[in-house]
Amino acid sequence: MNKLSCEVVEDLLPLYHDEVCSAATKEAVGAHLATCSRCSSALRKLQQSSSLPFERIARNKEEVAGLSSFQGYFHRSRVLSFVKGLLLATAVCAVLILGYAGLFRWNITEVPSSAIDITEVSLLQNGKIAYHVKVTDGYEVNQINGKMENDGIFYITPVRPVFKSRKFAELGLGNRYDTIDLEILNANRTDPSTRIKAVYYGPKDDNPILIWKQGMALPPATPTVEAQFTEQH
Fold it and tell me: Which tens digit of pLDDT belongs to each residue from 187-201?
């Protein structure tokens, strides 16, 4: 092989160092290195840079393992944070929905007795007690609850949500004729031997209005009142 220049030898040094060049090239590079301090110095630097001590290699492995562990922890933390955020958002939505339903939909507020007007209490020909109820505060009545007490007192209570709505129609649960069937109320009692003693309209603890009690003689219903229930059937 012709005499090699330093530029060519420097390009061949990695192959010479790793012993992957041909025998002729190895011989030519070796001959050049024997007479060239510049290229010999370059070879020594290549040998030093490619031969890391064992401790450095072990430390590099530990650093790589630590980085992988941190990446795994960071990934798990992100997943955990996402799950926590999703659960929190779900809980907030549930609270908002329940709060809305509780305030605007659930009929949990009793109409006060002071806003209830009971008139035309009378006895129908079929034995039922008839009456007319009108809620006078101008708000809708959404539901009518009936509750039988153990002492034989029956309470009829109109209820509405916490945030009540203005009445949009003249007739409805808050303005109508209705009846009480004492036979059915007595039949539905847990202890049939105890008869209904009285019927009140309004909240139990808010001076409810008496409609009927034992021994009370009710006037017969007028033809107009009778007609209300004849038309309904």
Answer: 887 777 778 999 999
Q: Which residues contact 130 (CB under 8 A, 6 or more apart)?
A: 120, 121, 122, 123, 124, 177, 178, 179, 221, 225, 228, 229
107 CB-near residues (< 8 Å, 6+ apart) = 142, 143, 159, 160, 161
Contact between 29 and 6 (Cβ < 8 Å):
no
Residues in the chain: 233
Which of 196, 218, 199, 216 has the alpha carbon at shortest distance from 208? 199
Paired strand residues for 154: 148, 199
Going from the C-alpha of 120 to that of each of 129, 178, 226, the distances in angstroms are 10, 10, 11
Q: Residue 145 forms beta bridges with which residues?
A: 157
Q: What mean pLDDT is predicted for residues 74-78?
A: 74
- Distance between CA atoms of 112 and 208, rounded to whole angstroms? 9
Whole-number Å distance between alpha carbons of 140 and 169: 9
Handedness of CA 63, 69, 73, 75 (dihedral sign): positive
The pLDDT tens digits of the residues spanning 154-171 come to 999 999 998 888 887 788
Rounded to whole angstroms, how far apart are CA atoms 204 and 156? 9
Q: How much is the pTM?
A: 0.57
